[in-house]
Each structure stands twice: as C-alpha cells, then as structure tokens.
Amino acid sequence: MSRTFLVRNPSILVFLALLAVFTIAVTLMSEAFGASLISTSFIKTLGKTLCLCLVALAMDLVWGYCGILSLGHFAFFGLGGYMIGMWLMYARTELIVAESMSNAAIPPTDQEVVDAIGTQIFGVVGSSDFPPIWAFAHSLPLQLLMVLLVPGLLALVFGWLAFRSRVTGVYLSILTQAMTLALSLYLFQNESGLRGNNGLSGLQNLPGVTASQAVVSVWFLWASALALAIGYVVCAWVVSGKFGSVVRGIRDDEARVRFLGYSVEGYKLFIFTFTAIIAAIAGALYYPQAGIINPGEIAPIASIYLAVWVAIGGRGRLYGAVIGAALVSLISTWFTGGLVPSLPLGFYTVDWVDWWLVLLGLSFVLVTLFAPKGIGGLVDIVTGRLTPNRHGADYGPDKGSLMEEEGRK
Amino acid sequence: MISRFLSAAALVLAFAAPGHAQDADAPIQQLLQEHSEIIQDSSRRTIGPAIDAIRDSGLPEAQLVLERWAAREMWLDEETGLFVYAEEIDRDTLRIFDFATAEEIGEVSDENYDQLKPNSGIRGMIGSALVKFQLSDPDPAARIDALDSLARNGNESHLPVLRASIEDETDPEIKTRKERLERLLTISFGATPEARIEAMDAFRGDLSVDVRAKLNPILATRTSAGTALPDGVNIARELEPGEDLTEVEAYELLVSEGLAPARLTDDMQRRTLQDNIDGDNVGGVPVASLSSPEARDRAYAALVEAGLAEAAATNAEVAQAIDDHVFYETYLEPNQAVTDAAEDVLNSIELSVSLNQFFDLSLDALSLASIYFLAAIGLAITFGVMRVINMAHGEFIMMGAYTGYVIQQIIPNYTVSILVAIPVAFAVTFGAGVAMERLVIRHLYSRPLETLLATFGISIALQQLAKNIFGTQARPLTSPGWLDGAWILNDVVSISYIRIAIFVLALCFLGIFLFIMKKTRLGLETRAVTQNPKMAASMGINPDKVNMMTFGLGSGIAGIAGVAIGLYAKVTSELGADYIVQSFMTVVVGGVGNIWGTLLGATMIGFLQKGIEWFNPSNTLAAQTYMIVFIIIFIQFRPRGIIALKGRAAGD
C-alpha cells in the first residue's frame, strides 16, 4: 500500500528530499552546530516559516481540496499557540518562583507556590487567581492534549453547526471570519483569563532547558521540519485515494456528491476539524519560536493572509501551499524588515516598509486574475499538463459542458 | 517746631479735605453703631445678632454693608467710631466711602482707621445673610446664579431666606425653581420629619439627578454586628451570614468591632513559625518538612502549647462566633418614618428612571442600527443584489471619510464643506467602484470566492495607501456647529444631534434605494440582470453597463456613509475594516437581496448589541463577542436571513 501510494505521488518524495536537504543545510550553517553563517534570529525565522507552511498545508486541504474558504484557520493556529504558551509560561514561572522561595526560612507549601505563580502571571491584569482554563497548565502531557482538543472541539462544534444548516460558499467564509473576530475580541478582554491584550510572553525560554537560544532554535527548526514532513505525507495520503476523490467532488459540485449518496456534511466536518488540528499543531510549534502571543495574532486579517499565501502558491496542490507560504512570508519579512533598498523615483522615494502591502495587495489581485493556479502552476508547464482552452461559447446548458474551443480539438 | 506743626497740618489738610461729609445719623450708620461692639469683637459665637439685625433691617444699604464686610473692605474710624468702606490705594492710603450714600468721602491716611477682618466662619454667615439679597436681586440672572449656588451647597440657614423670597418673586419660571429648591432643601434640613416627608412626596417619580442626590444620603447605611439587635436605632435590615454577606466578611466584621479574636491566616502562621525557628526545628518539627500545611499546623500547635504563640480561633470557634452574633445595617438617619418615605419615593423614582433608561437605550440602539444600516446599505447593493463579495467595501467607506477630511482642509466653513463633501465623496467612490468593477470584478463573476480574495487584495492595498498618504494618526472630520450638542428630554433621556442626523440620513438612503430599485430604469435593469443576465441581454439590456452602474452606485453610497461615520468616529485608515464584518453580518442576517431585510438586520444587531451592553455596561468587547456568537447561532435557524428570498430569485 505504502509503496503504491508513494509511487503514485512522486511529488512527496521530491518534497521530503528537498525538506531534508534544506534542514541539514541550515543546521550546518547554524551558530550552534555548524559554520555560524546564519544568525540565530534568522534560524528562528526559517523555523517559523516551516510552521506557516504547515498551516498553509491545512488551509490548502480545506480550501484547495474541499472548497471551504475558511477564514478561521489562523484562529486555530493561535489557539494552539495559546495552549502550549500556557504550559510554557506556567512551568517557567514555577521555576522562577521556586528559586526565589528557596531562600525563605520556611519551605513553601504547594498552595503558596501556586499563589505566587498566579500573582506573577496575572499581576499584569490586576488579578492573582488562576481561571479555570488554566486547570491543566501545570502538566505538559495534559496541556499538549489541550493543544489538540481545544481547537479540535471548537472546529467540530462550529463546523457541525455551519455544515448542518448548509451554510456554503461566501456565507461560510463570512461566518468563519465572524468566529475569528469573536474569538480575538474575547481574548482581548482581561476576563478571558489569558491576560487580555498582554497575551502570553517569554515563550522562547523552555523551562528546565539550559541550552542557549542558538541551540534551541535549531531544535525547533528540526521539530518544525519533522512536523511539516509528517503533515505533508498525512495530507497527501488523505487526499489520495477514494476519500480524496469524494472531497474534491464536494469542492466541484456539492449537490451531485450528495445525490450520489455520500454524507457531504460528514466529509466536510472531518476535513474542517482535521485541518484545524493541524493548524493548532503548527501554532504550538510557531509561538515558542516567536516568543510572544497576543490576541492581535488571531485577528481576521491573519486568516485572510493565510488564504493569500495559498492562493499565490497555488490551490489544490500541497506543494503549492508550501511554496506560497514560504515565499510570501519570507519576502514579507524581507520587505517589512527594511532590508530592501528604497526606490528613488526623483519626485518621490518609495520606502518599501510603507509600500510593501500595496505591492502585495496588487500582486495578489494580479495572481487571482491572471494566474488562478498560482506559482504551483509553473510546475504544470514543466510536466506538460495544460488546461484546455475554455474560451468561446458553450455547447450545452450547463457550466460543465464542453466549450466551443475544446470541441474543435 | 513750627515747621513740623505746619507740615503736619498741611498733611492733615491734604488728606482730610473731604469732598463729602459723612452722615453719622443715617439709619444704617445708627444700626451699625448699635452693634458696634460685637462687630468689632468679630467672634463667630456672638456676631449672629448683628448680622441678623443688618439683614432684617429692611434698609437698602444693608446688602452693601454685608458685601463690603465679607470682602474685608469695612473700616472703622477710630476717632468717630463710624464705619466706612474703603479701597486701599497704597500701603497707607485709603479712599473711603460712606455706607449711607455710597459716595466717596475722600482719600485719607489709614493711620486712624481699623480694618475689620471677619474670619472664614463669619464670612460664611455673612454669605448666608447675603443670599437673601441675591434671591431678591432685581436682575433675574443674579437670582438664577444665587439659586444655582444654593442648589450646589445650600444649608439649613438658607431655608428661611429662600422661603421668604418665594412670595415676592415675579418671574414665574424662577418662582418654580425657588419652590422646587425649597422642597429639595427641606428634604435635608426640614425642621420636622413630617415636613421632610411631605417635601419628599412631592418628588415622586421625578427624574432629576439632584432629587436622587438628596435622597440617597438619607438611605446611607452602616454595617455592624452585636449580640442582639439594638433598640433605638433605625435598622435597615438584618443580614444573614452566608446569604447577604459571606462568612469571611461576617467574621472580619466581628474582628474589626473587637467582638472576636482574629483568625489565623496562612501568612501570620508562616511569620510566627519563622520567628520561632530554633536551630533546625520549629516546635519540634523539622523546618525542612514545613512545606505541608499539616506539618505547619502541628508546629504551630506545639508553639501554642509552649506559650510562644497566641491560640488562634479555630474553624469551630469562628462558626460559633458567627452564630452567636447578629449582623445588621443601620441607617445613619435616625428617624424611621423619614427613611421609609425616602425609600418609597426612591423606589418610585427608580421605576420611572428605568423606564426612561429603557427609552434612552432604545434611542441609542436605533442610532447604532442606523450606523450599521448606513455602512451596510452599499453592501446590500453589491453583495445583496449583485452577489459580488466586496471586501474593499470598508475601504470605500474610509475613502469617503478621507474625502470629507480633505474637503474640510480646502473649505473652512464646516456646513458648506459637509454639503460639498457628500456629493464629492459619492463621485470619488463611484469612480473607484466603477474602476474596480471594470478592471477586476468583471472577470470574476463566475468565481465568487476569488472575488472575495481579489477585493481583499485591493482592500489591503487601499488601506496601506491611505496610511502612506494621511499617516497613522486619526484625522478629525468636524461636524458643523448646529450638529453639536444633544437633544435633552430629561436627565435620563438624551440623544446627540449628530446621531439624529445619521438616523435621518439612513432613512433618506432607504428611500433613495427603494426609489432607484423600484421606480427607475436602472433599478429595473439591475433586477433583470440579477435574475437572468442572458435573458436580460436578449431584451436589449447591456449587462456589462448595468453591472458597472450598480456596482458604482453601491460604492458611491459607501462613500457618503463614510462622511457620516467620519463625523462621529475618528477617521483612520482602519475605519472601514472596523465595519466590514458587521456590515456583512447585517446583510447576511437580514437576508441577502432584500433591502427590508438589511434594515431589519441592522435594527436587530443594533438593539442586540445595546441590549447586551446594558447587562454588562463596562465591557463593549464582550458585547461584540456575544453578539457575533448569537449571530452564528441565529444563522443556524434562519440560514437565509430574516427575510429569505423564495423561488428562483433565491438562486443557487
């Protein structure tokens, strides 16, 4: 089975090989394990980019394959980050508190330690009690479970409600956007128990790890690369075979698949929840590298950018999503970091920090208009797979019928 | 010797050449002389009769005397014992005036004059006495000023004066105010409880803040504890520990009143243990094992036994102490009839206040609804009629607002600039909409999801462009003067004119939209193209042109909405983004393709948001969160909105 699966999808092997070469190359150039050619902060950027590729993969699965334009997957990404951030912050504060209390004349009781951690973490929002959602924050395994469960359950409930009432197309997009907005507004409140707009910070310090950030950043790069590799194979496996055919069928004509007797809602719900969990895992790997998470990260605009990456990379092909996310987010970092020289026009100097978003927005419009297949479409030119020329009048009454130009061939 | 005498005489002549002789027999001077001694004595305890005598003398000069006296401008001629008032010209020279005639007597050296310096207590009494004159001042403005100051800080002494002045009041409006103020002061300072209760009754259902400000202090309470309910105090209610106050609070009250020993807190226990560390042990328990609460309790018990620490109240003792005592609230006002009446009147006021608050909230909700409607109506055309998702709709609103700002920079007159801004904003966003339709959307009519993405690209580009041109700080769009202020119905209900204007504007738009869609050729063609583009084309309608015009119209309306929204919100590049999700919600909740649905959707969302805010007024973020959650659930039950199109028009 595995042999045939890989043989049928040669792109997987190519992708895995490229990812391995990339990871080894970066490791060899890193400060910690190699020639010190790349700064630690750039390794973190690369590691974060791999996480973004993973969430783009999830987005491609749900949008490119299943046709659900979800504007909420970055919310799941952020929730995953929040869940792991809770443990990181708790465990690290616990170490700090234990150290400061070890000098006390009398050893502290467990309750005193917990109270002190609470004061440390929630002092900034004027509280000191742990809200109920922090109940599992003391335990890494439980909190890792929460990384999967919280976004997964949210996606399950939301998806069930939405698909059950047959909300489709742009309505579903707007609804998911509303969900994202509601979630980020909720997290902005101090009452949410996740430190309001302060968010969770200091996540780059792993509790109990004495290794320097240079080493930790490479560890995270490996972890992100591994997660991306596994995610890619699993996604490719899901969309290949019969299941994948049904999912693509839903994208192309939902009503027909329903009439064929498939439970469209079940398939959509599975894909929606499954991708939400992938997004959460990506988030859980991303935010320890970013070091800080706040509700602004979950704002609806972030999810739309996710769609932008996938669209530019090329929908409906997994490597397209990865290319899009990597390329756009790295170029974005490059432009907004002020590394691109300004463009003097004589009467006006174009400072790319200010004009990058204009450029991105317009190039996005151009890609949508003229290259709906995205960058991934270039691969088709190489492999010789070309779309039929569908211009001209149609022969029949339906959208799917042959067009004049095709008929002539 | 002679020369010295001469120069002294010259000096006397120079100063004491009075242009006017003082009249020692004038009635006011007589009166002052009568009380000369206590006036000079200037003691707060004894001065009363003198002030009263002057106030009640009925002499026209009495007010002048009191004013000058309070201003420390009354002087006593030590030789004659007469009182004058004076201005200090320099350190030793005075210009003196006669009280009786208010005429200048002349400039004199201050050697023989003694300044009367009333202390602040006496000045307060004089001030009270002066109220009488201010209340009957011939100038109505002065009377109103006096009433205003009395309303702020009237006290017991003002009451009789105020009562006396009501009768002679000629202005009916001021008379009503005086009567009302008299009742208000009676509530606090009335001589008998009956009088106070009667005054309160007159305010039944009154909405003014000042009435509540007078009544609430009467109902101020204090919580105390004792072994039994005391007699002779006005008890508001008995408190049940565990229900009205927590057991912890109850015990803290007992401790603070000295009725029970303090409970041992964890913190105190730790400190006591820390103070009694003996080598590696505390009370025989090793220090290292003190990380468990049980070990700490054992160590503390050992310390108590050894007499090193005080025995603390155990939980059983605490429960017993709470059981043995009663907890109650007493009114600071001792008379029960008064507090009962005050509570009764306050209840009646509360009822009418909440009714009016409900009305006020409804007005607020209506104005919020009209803002949402304004923001969504353009979308109702592009999304509702044409089914084109325009994520840049918010940026068209922003463009309208910035157009208004730019026009205001050119035309300084706010009224004119707003009148100019509305058509210009329409033109600008109409142009932008048409350009976008021609260049982008036209090619994507069969791919709605991609329209969403492409227009989103335009949206981020436009937003950043606005940021580059106008900067990140908010730009003001100032409303004309006649839109400032608010329409105030009473102390509870008020609505600002600008919100009324937005409401009217929203109604106008509704009318314009209905007119265009139902009565014009463009509307007819739009509806035809929406329903079946090919059939419409075969009837001689150019679908391309109609689509372009319709999209331009929707965008243009967004521009006008931008001017209106900019008037009350700050104009920033994120202005549109703040409204886009709500606008889509409004259209989707109302039902796509139906303007009445959009109206209902906006009304529902506006009322819902204000309603949720009412339950949790401090938190508008929470209100928005819950509202969106509500909408998501609402869509479950009516996926096609409040007014759903039926049949073929419903499409897909």
From TrEMBL, chain A:
GO molecular function terms listed in the Swiss-Prot or TrEMBL record: branched-chain amino acid transmembrane transporter activity
Bilayer topology term: Multi-pass membrane protein
TM segment ranges: 12-38, 50-79, 140-163, 170-188, 219-239, 266-286, 292-312, 319-340, 352-371
Compartments where located: Cell membrane
Cellular component terms per the entry's GO annotation: plasma membrane
Predominant localisation class: membrane
Keywords: Cell membrane, Membrane, Transmembrane, Transmembrane helix
Phosphoprotein as UniProt keyword: no
NCBIfam families: urea_trans_UrtC
Protein's recorded name: Branched-chain amino acid ABC transporter permease
Automatic annotation (TrEMBL), chain B:
Keyword vocabulary terms for this entry: Amino-acid transport, Cell membrane, Membrane, Signal, Transmembrane, Transmembrane helix, Transport
Sequence intervals crossing the membrane: 365-385, 417-436, 497-517, 548-568, 580-608, 620-637
One GO term (biological process): amino acid transport
InterPro entries assigned to the protein according to its UniProt record, in alphabetical order: ABC_transp_permease (IPR001851), ABC_UrtB_bac (IPR017779), BCAA_transport_permease (IPR052157)
Gene Ontology CC terms, in alphabetical order: plasma membrane
One GO MF term: transmembrane transporter activity
Localization, UniProt: Cell membrane
Predominant place of localization: membrane
Membrane topology: Multi-pass membrane protein
Signal peptide: 1-21
The keyword Acyltransferase belongs to this UniProt entry's keyword annotation: no
Family matches, as PANTHER family: ABC TRANSPORTER PERMEASE PROTEIN, BRANCHED-CHAIN AMINO ACID TRANSPORT SYSTEM PERMEASE PROTEIN LIVH
Family: Belongs to the binding-protein-dependent transport system permease family. LivHM subfamily.
Protein name stated in the entry: Branched-chain amino acid ABC transporter permease
Organism of derivation: Pseudooceanicola atlanticus
